[in-house]
Amino acid sequence: MSEFSNEYPTHDPGWVQEMHANHYLQSWSKQGRKPPVITGAEGSWFWDSTGKRYLDFQSQLVNANLGHQHPKIVQAIKDQADKLCYIGPAMGSDVRSELAALMTEITPEPITSTFFTTGGSAANELAIRLARHYTGRSKIIARYRSYHGATGGTLSLTGDPRRHLTRGDMPGVVRMLDPYCYRCPMGHTDSANCPVSQGGPHLEELLMYENPQTVAAVILEPIVGTNGILVPPDGYLQSIRETCDRHGILLIFDEVMAGFGRTGKWFACDHWDVAPDILSSAKGINSGYVPLGTMSVSKTLADWLKDYPLPGGLTYAGHPLACASGVAAIRAMQEEGTLAKATASGEYLRSELAKLADKHPCIGDIRGKGMFNAIELVKNRDTREMLVPFAAKEDAAAPMSEMMKFAMNEGLYLSFFSNCIRLTPPLNISREDLDLGLEILDRTLEIADEHY
Ligand code: PLP
């Protein structure tokens, strides 16, 4: 390469790992790791500098809903980059307006208008800010088994133990229990008799202590993602909606992981025809090719905002490259029948998992909708003793990390949380690749069986 060359150097993979280990700070995982150096990807696959290929059974961070390098999204980003890379959020831009119109088309009916953000955490931060601004109240009710982001406010909303790491949590967060029927927090076996699984009765009791006049919003993932794919019983979301309405409390649905066809519908809440006042999304909106998130609001809120705008904004809100990729991804999903594909592949996946459960006693529960699925692993099916304790680390979590390593070695990229394996492949994965992943999973589960 000459001094004036504008070609990028192709670095030696060893150098890349060295710099990664010593100079790249990554949240969550331990510093100093030398991960595989990924050099390319296509469809449901990615590969590293040694030529090893990995089948992406988690769609990266459950965002590559259309797989890797979808040609229509890549082309839209290139075309937009040629035309206009950046223009401030207050200016008109064709792709921004087009994406706002598309969001209105695919979100549940009362939702009419959208703010754009740089991801899911920023969308949820904005949602809390708006809920407090609109209601003049400060408390936010969030659930334990939840993940809402990694910024100050959203990590405080997050219920799982990651929030322990935040020091100085955002004040005003009240915690609610979850409709986790496989391990009912109230010990019920029949969700019809459980106030937590019904939703409204549990929320109503909390409000009796908290004073509803102080509560701005309830935020929840309609189907919980990171914390183990928890699908609520029928009637749950409706009951929460009705309770919120009785007390003038806003309902925020965090669809960051479950949205954009992941569950076989545009949004998880569509399975029960329950709409929120505020809907946050990100990830699958553009398969993660450019950072993008949204906070969409009902017509009532949109009209109110005309007189009382939300102060402050994001430099990169409605970034043209992100909006162009969002438009291309949503249109591709419409043209390619992606929602129907996700529904059919999800049904097939769960029926194959049921066959694996006949063979592997360690599978305690199989749950999910569309391509948003998990298996929960146990030491004993009758007692439901967990394979590893909740949020276990290091030695106690060894069987899970052993399985992760085994699968990765076999070329299957799987996602683990506590004693669950999440199965969230791209929505358009081929049947052949789905079968290949299941075959490697079958062998991986033998490790868990040894602990049964
Ligand atoms: N909300 C949910 C439900 C999520 O799953 C995530 C990320 O995994 C977030 C919010 C945070 O989104 P981001 O990482 O884009 O900030």
From TrEMBL:
* Cofactor list: pyridoxal 5'-phosphate
Keyword Methyltransferase attached: no
Report whether Transferase shows up as a keyword of the record.
Answer: yes
GO MF entries: transaminase activity
Superkingdom of origin organism? Bacteria
- Keywords assigned by UniProt, alphabetized: Aminotransferase, Pyridoxal phosphate, Transferase
**PANTHER family according to UniProt:** AMINOTRANSFERASE, AMINOTRANSFERASE CLASS-III
- Describe the family membership recorded for this protein in Swiss-Prot or TrEMBL: Belongs to the class-III pyridoxal-phosphate-dependent aminotransferase family.
NCBIfam families linked to this entry? PRK06062.1
Protein's UniProt name? Aminotransferase class III-fold pyridoxal phosphate-dependent enzyme
What lineage is this protein's organism placed in?
Answer: Bacteria, Pseudomonadati, Pseudomonadota, Alphaproteobacteria, Rhodobacterales
